[in-house]
Amino acid sequence: MSELNTLALKILENGKGILAADESTNTMTKRLDGVNVPSTPENRLLFRETLFTASSMAECIGGVILYDETIRQETSKKNKIPELISSLGSYPGIKVDTGAKVLAGSPDEKITEGLDGLRERLKNYYKLGAKFTKWRGVYSISQNYPSKLSIQSNAHALARYSALVQECGMVPIVEPELLMDGEHSANDCYKKTSEVIKKCFEELILHKVDLTGIILKPNMILDGNKFKDKVSNNEVAKLTLDCLKNSVPSEVPGIAFLSGGQSEIQATENLNLINKINNTNFIMSFSYGRALQQSALKFWSKNIQDIEGTQKIFNHRAKMNTLAAQGKWSKELEN
Ligand code: 13P
After folding, report:
1. Closest by alpha carbon to 177, among 159, 161, 200, 160?
2. pLDDT at 3 over 90
3. Domain coordinates of the chain in residue numbers?
4. Which of 101, 115, 133, 332 is most buried, by the most CB atoms less than 10 A from its CB?
């Protein structure tokens, strides 16, 4: 078993998942504007430190994805953030892409940038304590999209990124996200997600990435948010499992879903249903941003000094998702 495989398994062991707290300063500013809290470095740190010091961290959160600003910050008690996370038995990770930009040749689509100088940046993040990384490729779904160009170029970038990350001794999270925006059906999402994931693995293999030392972070198979005839959650779980079974090589140790705009409960319920029927060897867990933080952020914004109250809400969501990652969640536990 390689070291990277051991690490990937550790991050997702016993129903643990990943807290995606790697919103860029722009995105975090949007989130804070939404709850009327000024987006200052101090406030961004205070909210994140509140989550990172919550009691559920040790039991439920195997890894935290940080943004460049946060990995360099110190807590109010003068602890470095990566050290704080490690001291709780969780692993610090870092988003290393520099964002999705307009794709030349197909201007309605995006290509994720950040490969230039990546090897040097990775070495620096490793020194700061990062053990794993994230890179997100983003794809929209419509009749003509994602185009072959977007599928090919994002897969290539994800593979080059992954190879560099493993060379530096860290586990790459490979995140191809097909957005939920649009009028497409779940069946369209299934077909396009399969195509994207298969191309990603073709490139990962070409770039000699050790598939036992990555974590895949895909979307679930959902209807577009403007599609009328919604499929049931049971159907979402079946389609998602089937799609991944047919497109992900069996060596991959773990799959940690993004929430992608699902409500907190929907993201938990769907993960639970997937685990109830999971007949693969893949660990199926979560790497949620909004679906772990939304209620906590809303509560916190009313009194940003109420650390305990905010942590209580976050602990509940973390616990619910850890149960879902083991297929042990039920609606009654939400009350
Ligand atoms: P969401 O769970 O809010 O989709 O965020 C996960 C993530 O890290 C997106 O890159």
Report:
1. 200
2. yes
3. 3-334
4. 133
Instruction: Pick the residue whose CA is nearest to atom 5 on ligand 1.
Output: 289
| Residues taking part in catalysis | 217
Asked if residue 170 lies in contact with residue 121, where contact means CB atoms within 8 angstroms, the answer is no
pLDDT one-digit tens code per residue, 190-223: 999 999 999 999 999 999 999 999 999 999 999 9
Question: With DSSP H G I counted as helix, E B as strand and the rest as coil, what are the percentages for the chain, rounded to 5?
Answer: 50, 15, 35
Residue 288 has pLDDT above 80, yes or no: yes
Is the entire prediction scored with pTM above 0.90? yes
Whole-number pLDDT of residue 76:
85
For 222-282, where are the E strands, in sequence order? 254-257
Question: What would the two tokens of residue 96 be?
Answer: 């290393």
Q: How confident is the prediction for the chain on average, in pLDDT? A: 98
Strands 106-112, 100-103: pairing is antiparallel
Ligand 1 atom showing the smallest separation from residue 22 Cα: 8
β-strand pairing of 283-288 with 17-20? parallel
CATH of 3-334, one of 3.30.43.10, 3.40.50.1820, 3.20.20.70, 3.30.1360.70: 3.20.20.70
Q: Which two tokens stand for residue 332?
A: 């009654």
Å from CA of 288 to ligand 1 middle? 5
